[in-house]
Design brief:
alpha/beta; 4 domains; disordered N terminus; Calcium-transporting ATPase, cytoplasmic transduction domain A; 8-stranded mixed sheet; 50% helix
Length: 890
């Protein structure tokens, strides 16, 4: 038996592989061969391999393990960080600064690039170590029949799954995981979970046949084949291994290169914002050079100042702040909720998620049924029907020596009254057969000597076929069963028959002339946290789509139980999806909640269609069949118990398959994304205003408006203060909508607020002119530099506070990291010019009249910022009202 430290694993179906390693599909493969042909091709027998044969085959075929994923080294992780567009832009500016011998600027930029790359590498290295630890948690063994030598008798023993080879004879039972691709030799009541491939939560019956039947169901429909990773739901089996390691379907599907990861929402946003910055930075230096050459006759001596202007436009701390925000959020998730973020930008994508796609099994439901109702032949509630079903389930379990009840029997026993079982003595049983689809218990009622009662339970049509003809009652019950199935319920029929007691065995031929008792209906048990988690996701603006291989009625029933939209217009089946073009499908996915009978290709296509509507999509999956959709989504999510290939392909790994954990991850992503968006709004609007003012001043003044060293020091002060955004806790309103870094929205924002900042700077020039005229010191250049330096830091502090928190938070006096950093920035702006460091930087003390005029300018600027922010909020609220969709964060 296959033993595992974790819950039963997941699996998938596949073409069976011959011992030589070549895939054998269709009629030419082992799946179409007889048992004898399979054993001959594998050069083995039912007595098992000898130990020497197993060793030779292990050397030839290698370990029975999926191809290992090599974790990237530290240097590779650091170099990978240089591919980030923000970091690449900053590095390019550093090269330009070094080329014009602006060594101070170049050194600062290089330092920021190194810090950003190291922080990102550390976060991703930590995530890689965590996922490697998850892989080590699952250690398995399997029961194998082998011989010590050619003449030795076969013995069964436990060996590590990694040591299995083609030709090994293995045994497995309930709760075990099928350790390789196998062909059944013997089976008793065997059923396996193949939900990771088909999406159906119902176990699939498997049994040994000598000559496989042809059919349209494909390899998964072959009852004699089981596949690596499938988990045994009930029954026992003995099988020969036909494929191991890289020659299994699990490995072939996981290693397929046909499904390449799409660019995520974060990747697209970064690309768009980077190009905005590149355009501005490429435009600024030539403008500065040409304007100074044309109007002031200055030549290449203004090149360092032009580079400083470009650096001043760049949000130098962006790579550091982005990485710090995401790394802190990822560390909090791992520490507090057991959620591992493997790729740091995926945390931003979680905060941007508007649609979450998932299967219902294990997330919305508990992967087990519960009794819904018990109905008699007239369609009325009747507990006697449940009583007879309980008698059948209990005595079948006891007398047939079944290790554990199947899912429906377990549900019946959970709903049972103990006296229903104790009132009868078990005599015999005919266990469930996948072909017969019935089980029978024979019991004796105490006090009724000479009489046995046959209690039969199973598929409705099979039970009805064995009942005495009562056409009206049968038709009525068939109608009830069909209606229950349409409502997404599973249905079993129950019948009994009184027989004269006998000592001989009972067989399926005795299941005749039955009296129909009624129906027992079952529904999927809802996950305890599902309703609450769905409510939290809805409050956060995340809609849920169910992509399942189940019957549409079953999935729709779960939706009704959880108050999700489940009408006919909200359900789409795979056959209809196949008839739709991509454009038509994109139009339907918006209003559809349930996508039923989905294959892996359907799931990937639906995910892509949702993304084509402009939404950020997350996908929660745990099996091989989910790989295409995991890679097609903006952010792929897998639980800890998922297949290895699913965990490797996912961006985020959950401690449990629980929507509550996703809610926590979305909150953390919203906080991180909100801080990044706020930093970009504040920094880029301020920087753009300063650049416009620099260009204007350069044309109006006979000297440079600010020395390159002063620009650099000013930027260092800005950058240090703005690190506070990485440690800020945004307003709770940030959680109510997805956070997306929208380049278009950012461009509109920074244009408007940047113009305001430029107007404040130009007003400051007027205040400086008045102050200098009244002061009459003669050192106009130093005073101008000092006055503008002070004003820049003070306006930056105002912008940090107002555009971060707004007037409501300020009124409540809620001080956080950003407010304290803004206060420190303002103090530096006021203290540095008259301090002993001032002359070193070319700054000097300012006349008192300037501070009075500057206070008036700042008051007007603050009022204008508040008015502009209020107008922006009204515009965004109106956009939400008109479209019904959350606006982008920027």
């Amino acid at each position: 038996m296959l033993r595992t430290d974790t819950a039963a694993g997941k699996g998938a179906g596949a073409p069976v592989h011959a011992a030589g390693g070549a895939a054998c599909d269709g009629a030419t493969g082992l799946d179409a061969a007889t048992v004898l042909q399979v054993l001959r091709q594998l050069d083995c027998g039912p007595r098992g391999l000898t130990e020497a044969q197993a060793v030779r085959r292990l050397e030839r075929f290698g370990d029975n393990a999926l191809p290992a994923r090599r974790s990237p080294t530290w240097p590779r992780l650091v170099v990978r960080g240089l591919r980030d567009p923000f970091t690449a832009v900053l590095l390019g500016l550093g090269v330009v600064a070094a080329a014009v011998q602006a060594w101070g600027t170049a050194c600062v930029i290089l330092f920021l690039v190194v810090v950003s790359c190291v922080l990102r590498a550390a976060g991703e290295h930590r995530a890689d170590r965590s996922t490697a630890a998850l892989r080590r948690l699952v250690s398995t063994t399997s029961t194998v029949v082998r011989r010590a030598g050619e003449e030795a008798p076969p013995t069964a023993r436990e060996v590590p799954v990694d040591e299995l080879v083609p030709g090994d004879i293995v045994r497995f039972g309930p709760g075990d995981v099928v350790p390789a691709d196998v062909r059944l030799l013997r089976a008793s009541g065997l059923s396996v979970h193949q939900s990771t491939l088909t999406g159906e939560s119902t176990p699939v019956a498997k049994y040994a046949v000598d000559v496989p039947a042809s059919g349209d169901g494909g390899v998964l429909a072959q009852p004699q084949l089981c596949f690596q990773g499938s988990s045994v739901a009930s029954g026992t089996g003995t099988a020969v291994v036909v494929g191991t390691g890289a020659r299994t379907r699990l490995a072939a599907t996981g290693g397929a290169s046909a499904w390449q990861r799409e660019s995520s929402a974060f990747d697209r946003s970064v690309h768009g914002i980077s190009w905005i910055l590149i355009r501005f930075m490429l435009l600024a230096p030539p403008l500065v050079l040409m304007a100074n050459a044309a109007l002031r006759g200055r030549g290449l001596e203004t090149l360092p100042f032009a580079v400083a202007v470009a650096v001043g436009l760049t949000p130098e701390m962006l790579p550091v702040i982005v990485t710090t925000c995401l790394a802190r959020g990822a560390a909090h998730l791992a520490r507090a909720h057991g959620v591992i973020v493997k790729r740091l930008p995926a945390l931003h994508d979680l905060g941007a998620v508007e649609v979450l796609c998932l299967d219902k099994t294990g997330t919305l439901t508990q992967d087990r049924p519960i009794v819904e109702r018990a109905l008699d032949a007239e369609g009325r509630e009747d507990l006697d029907v449940l009583r007879w079903a309980t008698v059948n389930a209990w005595w079948t379990l006891q007398l047939a020596e079944v290790p554990e009840p199947d899912a429906l029997d377990a549900a019946v026993l959970d709903a049972a009254v103990e006296d229903d079982v104790l009132a009868y003595d078990g005599v015999a049983s005919v266990p469930f057969d996948p072909q017969r689809r019935l089980s029978t218990a024979v019991v004796r009622t105490p006090g009724r000597l000479g009489t046995h009662t046959l209690v039969v339970k199973g598929a409705v049509e099979e039970v009805l076929a064995r009942c005495t003809p009562e056409q009206d009652g049968h038709r009525r019950l068939s109608t009830l069963a069909a209606a229950a199935a349409e409502e997404g319920l599973r249905v079993l029929a129950v019948a009994t028959s009184e027989r004269r007691a006998r000592t001989g065995p009972y067989t399926p031929s005795d299941e005749r002339g039955l009296t129909l008792r009624g129906l027992v209906t079952f529904r999927d048990a809802l996950a305890p946290t599902a309703a609450g988690a769905l409510g939290v996701l809805a409050e956060h603006g995340v809609s849920v789509k169910i992509l399942t291989g189940d019957h549409p009625g079953t999935a729709a029933r779960v939706c009704r139980d959880l108050d999700l939209p489940s009408g006919p217009d909200h359900v789409l089946t795979a056959d209809r999806i196949d008839r739709l073009g991509d454009a038509d499908l994109a139009g339907l996915v918006r209003r559809t909640t349930v996508f039923a009978r989905c294959t892996p290709d359907h799931k990937a296509r639906i995910t892509a269609a949702l993304r084509s509507t402009g939404r950020t999509v997350g996908f929660l999956g745990d099996g091989v069949n989910d790989l295409p959709a995991l890679r097609a989504a903006d952010v792929g999510i897998a639980p800890r118990g998922a297949t290895d290939v699913a965990r490797e392909s996912a961006d985020v790994i959950l401690a449990e398959k629980d929507l509550t954990a996703i809610g926590h991850a979305v909150r953390s992503g919203r906080f991180s994304g909100g801080n990044i968006a706020t930093y970009l709004r504040v920094t880029l609007s301020s920087n753009l205003g300063n650049v416009i003012a620099m260009l204007s001043a350069g044309l109006l003044l006979p000297f440079l408006p600010m020395l390159p060293t002063q620009v650099l020091v000013q930027n260092l002060c800005f950058d240090t203060a703005q690190l506070a955004f990485a440690y800020d806790r945004p307003d709770p309103s940030v959680l109510r909508r997805p956070i997306r870094l929208d380049p278009g929205a950012l461009l509109r924002f920074l244009t408007g607020f940047g113009a305001l900042n430029a107007l404040a700077d130009l007003a400051t020039f007027g205040a400086l002119a008045l102050s200098l005229r009244s002061a009459g010191t003669g050192d106009d250049e130093a005073l101008f530099h000092s006055g503008w330096f002070t004003e820049n830091l003070l306006t930056q502090a105002l912008v940090m506070v107002i555009l971060r928190t707004g007037h409501r938070r300020v009124a409540r006096g809620a001080l956080g990291p950003v407010q304290w950093a803004a206060a420190a920035l303002a103090v530096v702006g006021l203290v540095l010019p008259p301090s002993p460091l001032g002359p070193v930087l070319g700054l000097s003390a300012l006349p008192p009249s300037y501070y009075l005029l500057l206070g008036c300018v700042l008051a007007v600027y603050a009022a204008a910022l508040l008015a502009a922010r209020a107008r922006d909020e009204r515009r965004r609220a109106e956009a939400v009202r008109r479209s019904g969709a959350p606006p982008p964060a920027m």
